[in-house]
Amino acid sequence: MHRTRGKVLGVAVALAATGLLAACGDNDSTASSTPKLTHTTTASQPPATSSSAGGDTGAQTPAPESPQQTPAETVAPERPQPVPTDVVPPGDTAKLTDKDKKFLDALKEKGVNASSPDIALSIGTYVCQGVAAGASEQDLTTFVNAMAGSDPSFDPTKMPVEKVGKIYIDTAKQTYCQ
């Protein structure tokens, strides 16, 4: 039991470190690519010459930069993803299948109350997909424990995460993966 807790902690630390490194990484690519892009784009345009009524003075005036030269304008802006219509809000069981309800009821009977049906159903779906893919029991346990422990309603003083994870795995295998 202590080894599993250590593995879960190790996975959590690795995920946190990865997130921090991704969020706090230096931005070399943006800083170094901006001058190259501007220089390359400006150099590819033919220089404009200044002409006056008295003739050519030989001085060249750079062409005005067009708005398309900045990388931010060439990339489509991010748009929020539409909210799926099949998401079940907490407390709304009208869109749950009989199989979903059976799984959720079995979890409640064993003392596991997820903060929303979506959390419990996604853990159950993960278990079923892992079983179908031939994942090891240890891999299933590690990830299910991590998912169950991240549920806002999880209280380690009521039940250890290892027990909650085992309940999710056993219940999913018995009621949801059929």
Please give a structural write-up.
There is one protein chain. The chain is mainly α and 178 residues long. Helix content is 57%, strand content 7%. A two-stranded antiparallel sheet has the order 1-2. A hairpin with a 2-residue loop joins β1 (48-52) and β2 (55-61). The chain starts with a helix and ends with a helix. Mean pLDDT is 72; it is low at 27-34, 38-44 and 83-88.
Poorly predicted runs of 5 or more residues: 27-34, 38-44, 83-88
First-to-last CA distance: 29 Å
Average the pLDDT over all residues and give the rounded result.
72
Overall number of strands: 2
Q: Please give the radius of gyration in angstroms.
A: 29 Å
- How many strands, which pairing sense, and closed or not: the largest β-sheet? 2 strands, antiparallel
| Annotation field: number of helices | 7
**Sheet with most strands: strand arrangement:** 1-2
Helix share of residues? 55-70%
Name the structural class: mainly alpha
Report the portion of residues in β strands.
Answer: 5-15%
Which oligomerization state do the chains in this entry correspond to? single chain
Overall geometry comes to: extended
Could you give the order of the helices and strands?
HHEEHHHHH
Helix/strand layout:
Blueprint: H1 2-24, H2 28-44, E1 48-52, E2 55-61, H3 71-74, H4 98-109, H5 117-133, H6 137-149, H7 161-176
Antiparallel strand pairs: 1-2
Helix pairs in contact: 1-6, 4-7, 5-6, 5-7, 6-7
